[in-house]
Amino acid sequence: MIHANYIAGEWLAGSSAAPNINPSNLADVVGHYALGDAAAVDAAVAAAQAAFPAWSTSGIQARFDALDRIGSEILARREELGTLLSREEGKTRPEGIGEATRAGHIFKFFAGECLRLAGETLPSVRPGVGVEITREPIGVVGLITPWNFPIAIPAWKIAPALAFGNCVVLKPADLVPGSAWALADIISRSGIPTGVFNLVMGQGSVIGEAIVRHPGVNAVSFTGSVGVGRRIAEACVQAHKKVQLEMGGKNPQVILDDADLKQAVELSVQSAFFSTGQRCTASSRLIVTAGIYPKYIAALQARLATLKIGDALAAGTDIGPVVSEQQLAQDLRYVEIAQAEGASLAAGGQRITCHTSSGHEGYFMRPALLTNTTPAMRINREEVFGPVASVIRVQDYEEALAVANDSEFGLSAGIATTSLQHATHFKRHAQAGMVMVNLPTAGVDYHVPFGGSKGSSYGPREQGRYAQEFYTTVKTAYTLA
To answer: Is 246 marked active-site?
Structure first.
């Protein structure tokens, strides 16, 4: 069976198809998925344009019902969907089920937002004139999503786009089309009219490029690498398209002398290494003050030694495989670069063989901990996007804050401390869109805004009520009484 693209309410074959390989078991083919082309994007955009007039003015109850139905089916099938997600992406099955659950909650939340659309009525400075300020959908939205959250990120883009009356063309990452296809299958049965939602799978250089350049696409929301994001921004600005970008992170986790050691170690492990470190919010820079440094390193090494690396679907696995051979090679290369620049490898950093129950191998790596690093090293400047964390030793809180902010990125930042003074100061002065106190830097709620500063994000925030800033435009209407 070839899983087809979904365009104008029909499942249509692509120009070719590609296998979806399980990174825990390279002999396991999750499925074969269609590869679209520019013609498929043309058809999807045309379908979305045709559907937009009716959908954008449809009743809010119909939108609520459809999104609520989608959320209900996702939640009812969360274990099945989470297993599929873990099988194709490599995060552990509990993490996969958690992500599928989050996707269901996102659709439920935005179903409610359909009923909470609000505007303003103001008096004019001119006597006898009334002013109404309302929000309207922007049109056809192209959504380009990454491989590391293959159902949650599509959900947090699709749900607000539909809730606010837009039509969608979704291009998922070509490494993990299975979760997006399953989501499209659920959406196809939700009662949403033909053409409102479309799925075109394939390579970013083909499908993503066609979406960004298409004159019928009014806005583009992208999550992925910095380089691709910058090219998308340039193209969208030139074409007067609205654009929203979520890109890289080099997130700091500060550990102060007064921190609870056990808590600090655990949140560091969760931040840096869970989900195989393949999260844009992962804390890959561990910034530790001198007083706690020796005890922290020893405790962190001991905790890393207890982690079970293996098949994402196996019970008891703490960390699954890296998503692909290319990503694994990149992770290992950065470990070598760091050592060449003077860092010490304090734990892990090697490719390992983890035989599955069927005897096949995957892309497994023991989490790497690098010590004796300095802020200027490449390992502390560039995003690795894997189970690799570096430690920077500092003297005090002031130096820790300065090092934490010494980055072109600014997505998430964390601090472990029992000092209310330092926690309060850090929340205000950390140059990041999200700040965590005594919590992992990775892990956010679905009903509040997500996004960063500096090179991490561009455009309005995602998630929560703030999503309306991107998916709607403001209209001001005057009426003479």
So the answer is: yes
Annotated active-site residue 354? The verdict is no
| Burial class of residue 266 (count of CB atoms within 10 Å of its CB; 0-12, 13-18, 19+) | middle
Among the listed residues 246, 354, 383, 462, the single catalytic one is 246
* 153 touches 145 (CB < 8 A): yes
Is residue 444 a part of any domain in this protein?
Answer: no
Closest CA to 187 of 200, 196, 177: 196
Over residues 35-58, the pLDDT tens digits come to: 999 999 999 999 999 999 999 999
Which of the following is catalytic: 114, 236, 280, 354?
280
For residues 355 and 426, membership in a common domain is answered with yes
Phi, psi of 290 (to 5 degrees): -60, -40
Distance CA 461, CA 452 (A): 8
pTM of the model: 0.96
For residue 10, give the nearest of 171, 200, 243 by alpha carbon: 200
The tokens for 261 are 């050691």
Question: Do both 25 and 164 map to the same domain?
Answer: yes
* Domain range for 415: 252-437
Question: Residue 287's beta-bridge partner residues?
Answer: 254, 392
| Alpha carbons 259 and 291: distance in angstroms, whole number | 10
